[in-house]
Structure formats: C-alpha cells, structure tokens
Model the fold of this input.
Amino acid sequence: MSTDKKVAFITGGNRGIGLETARQLAQTGVEVVIGSRDRKKGEAEAAKLRGEGLRVDAIEFDITRQADYKKVYDYFDKKYGKLDILINNAGISKEGFANPLTPSTVPVPVLRETFDTNFFGTVELTQTLLPLIRKAPEGRIVNLSSILGSLTLHATPDSPIYNFKALAYNSSKTALNQFTVHLAYELRNTKIKVNSAHPGWVKTEMGTDAAPMEIPDGAKTSVQLATLPADGPTGGYFHMGQPLPW
Ligand SMILES: NC(=O)c1ccc[n+]([C@@H]2O[C@H](COP(=O)([O-])OP(=O)(O)OC[C@H]3O[C@@H](n4cnc5c(N)ncnc54)[C@H](OP(=O)(O)O)[C@@H]3O)[C@@H](O)[C@H]2O)c1
Done:
C-alpha cells in the first residue's frame, strides 16, 4: 500500500519530547508512528492520541537491538512504500547533569552504553531507513542533539553550559552533530534535509523538574525541522529556529 500523506517515524516516542512531537506533528496532518521499547506503553499512548482525532500508531522498537532496524524498514515499506520524516529522538543520559561523573572517572562502559543509543544506534537506524526516505518526495531527518553537544560553548567560560561537563552524554551529541553535517553533505544534491535539534532544557524524566521549559515547547524545534519547506536549511544545528554554534 502507498499513501500521498506524509508519514513519520519517531524513536523514543512513548513519553517526553518524543511523545509530544508525535502529537504536534500529527496535528499538522502527518501520519505518525512512534517507536517504543515497551510495546504496551507505546500502544496506549498512540491510542490516546487517536482519541484526540490524530493518526498515530506504535511499534515496538529498541535502538540497541539491530534486528529492530529491519523490522521498522519492513513496516514502512509494506504499509507506505516510503518514509517522509525520521525523528531520531531516543536518547539516554547515564551520568546525571547536576554532579556528573568527571571526565577522569567516567567508566568507559558508561561511555559505550551512551554512544550505543545516542550515536551508533541512531546512525545505523538512519542508514537502514535511508532507502525508504529517498522514496519520499522531500525527506526530512531530525537528530535530537543537545546544546550540550556544542564544542564552542563548552570552550567558552561565560556560556550557559560551561559548567555542565558530562562527557559521555555531551560527546555522544557532538558525534551526532557530525553525523548531521556529514549526512547532509552526502545528501546535498537530493531533496532530503538533515538537521540537529536542541529542544531546550525541558521538564521530562531526562530534563528533570528543574528545567525551565514545558514539554509542549520542547517539541517545537523537532516539529519545525521535520516540516521544513523546500528552501529550508540542511546540515544545521537549531533551537527554536535559531542556529547554535557547533
Ligand atoms: N529534556 C531535555 O532537557 C533535553 C535537552 C536536550 C536534548 N534532549 C534530547 O531530546 C531527546 C528526548 O529527550 P527527553 O527529555 O524526552 O527524554 P526522556 O523523557 O528520558 O525520554 C527518552 C525516550 O527515549 C527512549 N529510549 C531510551 N533508550 C531507548 C532505546 N534503547 N531504544 C528506544 N528508545 C529508547 C525512552 O524510552 P523508555 O520509556 O522505554 O525508557 C523514552 O521514550 C533525547 O535524545 C535527549 O537527549 C533532551
């Protein structure tokens, strides 16, 4: 089956920024599929969004399970024959932000685990789904990075993130930013746009209650980059429409 409607896949879509992104994207008329490690949680959230009149489905998806990449490919291939929007939203932080492990003590297994989800899994999933994104008229790939991935701001003493030196999380997002720039370069002669998003510091399980932004605002950057017009940017790093320094 195929569809003229735009279809999107959002990883880590069962809660937090991913779930709200599903809601706001579906409100623009996009058909959204959320990936959820826990199938029941994903289906329950998708059902709630359908109750709001939105077209949202859920599939079981764990970004650390390679077999799941092909499963997602097959799902979209069979149902739609394409994928218009991929939002690489799933992410973890294992070291905390208030008093993170120091770079001299952070265990390498924590670095590896963080990179497996935030970088390697995201890269491999995108590689797997790219043939389907190429079949969409104007593909959009959004990588949920963070301002904490900015090398420039980490090296600037008066920047707001100067004291947030969580090596595993921050460097996984810096690596993800490189993926954005490199993939955008590879796809520069196509209609596919690839951008990194900083959602803001948002009140989610990861962001904690100390965060100043509410979840509805935290989803706005992802939705904006997922729905960029044909003359929009690619290979950029944005928060609420404003570029961030790499
Ligand atoms: N909140 C902030 O202030 C903030 C700031 C900058 C960037 N970000 C980024 O924004 C994205 C969303 O963050 P959030 O605040 O919404 O985080 P969150 O509330 O902790 O939600 C994270 C989501 O990712 C999923 N996830 C984790 N590991 C996964 C795996 N192995 N496979 C598939 N899904 C997995 C979680 O699923 P489960 O429910 O199964 O755990 C959950 O749905 C992340 O990439 C984060 O780094 C957040």
User: Anything to note?
Assistant: The chain has one domain: 7-243.
